[in-house]
Amino acid sequence: MLKYSKVVGLAVFVFLFAMCNQKSKNEAESETILKGSLDITVDETIKPIVEDMVAVFEGTYYEAKIAIKPKSEAELINDLLNQKAKVVVTTRELTTEEKARFEKSKINPRVTPFATDAIAFVTNKGNNDTLIALKTVIDFLQGKSDSGIKGLVFDNPNSSTVRYMKDLAKVKELPSKNVFSFKTNDEVIKFVSENDGMIGVVGVNWLYQPSPNMLDIIKKINVMSVKGLNGDGYYNPTQNDLGEKKYPLARDLFIINCQGYTGLGMGFASFISGDIGQRIVLKSGLLPVRMPGRNLKIRSQIIKDKE
C-alpha cells in the first residue's frame, strides 16, 4: 500500500511539473516581437507621434496590442528606474547615474533614437512680434527683470520642457513671478491663444499634429522664430532648420527598452526606427533619424497612351 502511495504521489508530482512547464512555455510564447500586449510610458510632450506609430504598428501586426501611458518626464524616469515601466519613449538619454542604477540591477537598457523634435515658443495672433532671442528667455528664467517678457507658460512643472529650459538657463527652479503651468500642452496653447503677451513653451509635435478639438485654437497662435545664443539668424522648428541644425531648441527622441528579453518592446523599437516608422516621423513634421529612401523606376522608353 505504501509503495502504491509513493507511485501515485510521484505521478501527481510529474503531472504538476509538466503542467507548470507547459504554463511557463505558454507564457513565454504569449509575447514575441510581433505579438502580445505591452504598456509603453510616453513623455506627454510627444504623445501624438507615438500614437501614430502605435496605430500603424497595430494595423500591420494584428496580434500586437500596445497601450500608451502619457506621463511627465519626471514620472516616466522614476517609473523606469523603479521597474514600474519596462518600455518608455522620452526626449533624452539616461544620465550616468541612471545607467549606474541599471548596471547595479544587472539590467542593460536598449536605447534607440528615432527622431528629432523641438521645443517651440508660441504667442497670441494679436502679438505682431514673432521673433524672440533665446538669451531673452534665459534672462527671464534667471530672474532678470529687464528681460521684456510678460510671462512664460509651461505645461507641467515636472515636464521635459521645464527640465530642458532650466538646464539651458542653468537654474534649479523657475521664477515664482510671471510663470504659469498647466497639465497639458493643449492647455498651454489654449491659454496663450486667449491672453495677449504670453509666451507658451510646448513640444512642437502638438502643433504639427493637433487633436481635432484644437484645430481652431491653433489658428489663433503664432510659432515664434528663435535666435540662438550664437549667430544673428532667426530660425523655426521646421524639418529644414532642424536638419541643418540651425534651430536652437532641438532635442532627440528615444525609445528605451528594459524588458530584458526579445519581446514586443524590441519589435516596436525596430519598427519606429525602420523604414515605415521613419516615414511616419517625416510625415508628422519632425525630423527622422535617417531619411527614408525613394525607389525610382527608370523606363527605357516612353509608353504613349493609345488613342
TrEMBL record:
InterPro entries: PBP_domain, Phosphate_ABC_transporter. Residues 35-272 form the PBP domain. Residues 1-20 form the signal peptide. The keyword Signal applies. Keywords: Signal. Pfam families: PBP_like_2 (PF12849). The keyword Nucleus does not apply. PANTHER family: PERIPLASMIC PHOSPHATE BINDING COMPONENT OF PHOSPHATE ABC TRANSPORTER, PHOSPHATE-BINDING PROTEIN PSTS. This is PBP domain-containing protein. It comes from Flavobacterium bizetiae. The lineage of its organism: Bacteria, Pseudomonadati, Bacteroidota, Flavobacteriia, Flavobacteriales.
